[in-house]
Write a structure and sequence with these properties.
Blueprint (H helix, E strand, L loop, with lengths): L13 E4 L2 E5 L2 E5 L2 E4 L5 H9 L11 H7 L25 H15 L4 E2 L2 H9 L50 E7 L21 E5 L11 E3 L1 E4 L1
Parallel strand pairs: 6-8
Antiparallel strand pairs: 1-4, 2-3, 4-9, 5-9, 6-7
Length: about 230
């Protein structure tokens, strides 16, 4: 990383992802090099944002996000001890909250941090060989927290080292979904629409990965943090 920061959070580490190509729905994407957060954002990390007036600082929020937020001061399920565990991935965050967190983290670290685009997320997960899963082409329930692994709840972001992607990013398959910067399109195109303007409800922004049980919902989505180069 060309620029270092003195600001730190528990488990906030970065993995270098070199420039390369990935294919999404048959579309070839040429992705520039970037850095990807090694782990999904944890409750301990997100709590620093909440405690640092993240929900009352206007500059962190988009116009639509600020209007959506209203009097909200924390994510859904924030006070539920079953989920709120420091080393587990934070859940219940909307796209607006996810983006605001990256704006706060940018201000704290003096780095240009944002949500990963869909093609960046795919590149970080898949590597150079078009593999089906971050670890290879065969599903393996011992490498991720999925329905098949039978956990039924989130796990520490450090629990599955053998499930890391080719570039060392963990939990890209399993545990939680992760919000991406890109707007959802039924027919994928590249480059994606990564503008932050407008609304960003469940069907309007991309979420990638897989969560423990059920369908994608804002109750189960985490943050995919990236640093473009």
């Amino acid at each position: 990383m060309s620029q270092e920061s003195s600001f730190s959070l528990p488990l906030l580490e970065w993995c270098y992802v070199p420039a390369g190509r990935v294919k999404i729905e048959g579309v070839v994407c040429n992705v520039n090099a970037f850095w990807m957060a090694k782990y999904p954002i944890t409750y301990a990390q997100y709590e620093a944002f909440v405690n640092d007036k993240g929900y009352s600082t206007r500059t962190y929020w988009t116009d639509a996000g600020w209007q959506w937020k209203g009097n909200t001061t924390e994510p859904r399920h924030w006070r539920d001890s079953e989920w709120h565990i420091p080393t587990h991935p934070v859940i219940g965050v909307s796209w607006y909250e996810s983006y605001a967190f990256t704006r706060w983290l940018s201000a704290k670290t003096k780095l240009q941090i944002t949500l990963a685009t869909e093609s960046q997320w795919q590149r970080a997960a898949q590597g150079d060989d078009g593999r089906e899963y971050p670890w290879g082409n065969q599903f393996d329930e011992t490498r991720c927290n999925s329905r098949e692994s039978g956990m039924g709840k989130t796990t520490p972001v450090t629990q599955y080292p053998n499930g890391a992607s080719p570039f060392g990013v963990w939990d890209m398959n399993g545990n939680v979904w992760e919000w991406c910067l890109s707007k959802f399109a039924y027919d994928y195109f590249f480059p994606e629409d990564n503008s932050v303007d407008g609304t960003a409800f469940r069907a309007e922004r991309v979420a990638r990965g897989i969560k423990v049980i059920g369908l994608v919902s804002s109750a189960s989505v985490n943050v995919s943090a990236a640093i473009p180069i």
